[in-house]
Amino acid sequence: MASITSRRNVLRAGAGVALCGTVGYLVGGRGGADDGSELGTDRSPRPLSVSGQWRQYRADAANTLAKPDATVLPDSGSVYWRLPAASAPVFDGDTMFLERANGSASVTIAAHSRATGDSIWEGPDRTGTNRSPAVGQYVFSNSGELTGFDAGDGTVRWQEETDAHVGWAPVVDDDRLYLAGRRYDGTPAMVVAVDGETGETVWEVAFREPEADIESGLAVGDAHVFAATTDGRVVALAKSDGERRWVSDAVESVRVPTTVGDGSVFVADESGVVSALSAADGVVRWRRSVAPPSGGFAYGERTLYYAATDGVYALDAGDGRQRWLNDQSDPLAPAVGSDAIYVATGFDDRSLHAVDRTTGDWLWSHTFPRIWEGDVPRGGARYPPVVLDGGLFVTADDGLYAFGPAG
């Protein structure tokens, strides 16, 4: 099997290597802001005391967006500090990793204190598009470079070149990195497994169907890597060697991330039909017509949270039964804590909402300011929240916000 990578200046990665794909954009504007904050945003920056890890874009390889044991901010929240706009952050130890755009085609990976946001180190500028980091191994950019940075000081440990375009942040599971993409020559979509220690390609699988594309990233379970395609299939590949274990055509086109939980793969098609497939063999366990997706799923303790165009649904993961609906306008996927879920919204609502996990009732809200990019109004969140014990983080159009307890 031909390798997706060609080796270049490869070094053995030492302990503590930060892995990134890249997410985001550059916010410009005329400086005006319509500040509708409901919580304290005008106070001086102050240190935030949080604990826990969030090592990749959607929390883990299964895309659960959940820290169900973390007491985040169920009662109230306040902005402790803010950084310029960047990717969705990830956290390992006391360090926050992110990428930020330096222009239309340049990105930089950086490490910051998770308590204060202070800079620790910055990597070199690279050609590419800003995406969310994942801690454990490397950095991937749309320019075709896969780079391993030392988490302690940002030293480049190894670097790869690829001939594939990857539209999603990579997924890290154990000692491997999984990427979904397509070659620049327009050939079918592919999934690639990369060794997390050396950067070498372990296996790659090119889809035979030329119309297949993967616009929803990958999810990884106990034994399989799951890819959902725009032509309406879910494919399970063996983690060990990439062999196809099963293919389901029981869904329509999929463009939001799939999620794995409790032995099921959860998929939402463009029309708003949510399906639970057996992770073992792809058999449909249940199916429910809800509403078109706006942000996809989160999963925690046998509850599937689904962000749709008319709000956030809580569904029983076992049978799809609706537990509650929290009305919102086009929310992003929620993040799950111990007592609440945290939902961020984009331009129309421009808010962060804490919602009771059991009842779906509102707990508290924060409104992000409307900003201007030239004569174009913008504002609101760009990515799902990141939750830790004691605080949470949201990337909005005007910056990366760190929220802690009010007071």
Structure characterization notes:
With 407 residues, this protein is mainly β. It has one domain (5-404): 7 Propeller (Methylamine Dehydrogenase, Chain H). The protein contains no helices and 39 strands.
Task: Draw up the topology in text.
Blueprint: E1 5-8, E2 17-20, E3 33-34, E4 78-83, E5 90-92, E6 95-101, E7 106-113, E8 119-122, E9 126-127, E10 133-135, E11 139-140, E12 145-150, E13 156-162, E14 164-165, E15 171-173, E16 176-183, E17 189-195, E18 201-206, E19 218-220, E20 224-228, E21 234-238, E22 244-248, E23 259-261, E24 264-268, E25 273-278, E26 284-289, E27 293-300, E28 303-308, E29 311-316, E30 322-327, E31 335-336, E32 340-344, E33 351-356, E34 362-367, E35 370-373, E36 376-379, E37 386-388, E38 391-396, E39 399-404
Antiparallel strand pairs: 1-13, 2-10, 2-12, 3-35, 4-39, 5-6, 6-7, 7-8, 7-9, 11-12, 12-13, 14-16, 15-16, 16-17, 17-18, 19-20, 20-21, 21-22, 23-24, 24-25, 25-26, 27-28, 28-29, 29-30, 31-32, 32-33, 33-34, 35-36, 37-38, 38-39
